[in-house]
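Suppose a colleague, Dr. K., hands you the sequence of a protein chain of 99 amino acids and asks what its three-dimensional shape might be. Before reaching for any lab equipment, you can write down a predicted structure in token form. Begin with the sequence itself:
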Amino acid sequence: MTSILSKDIIQEWGLQNLPEIKQVEMVDRIGRLLYQALLVRSLDILSETEQTEFDLLLDEDTTTPQDVLAFLKTKIPTFDMMVIEERDKLKEDLLVPTK
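The predicted structure, expressed as tokens, is then:
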């Protein structure tokens, strides 16, 4: 996950008061959940041919999450918007409003 996105999550999710090690841990967890949500949602959007390409990419031992996201971004024109939507949905699902 990029450091800019990490800083955004720390600020947006109110994690700035946690110790730095906990911030890193939470950002990592949130990033993994977001990544999984994006993969699942992308499968519904990709054509059969693109899904085959995607499967081949995932089967390569050297493929990184950044490679996967770059691939999806080239195949899904609205990918950036999808990231925002999934991030917001995840935040809504995980955060309990404080009173």
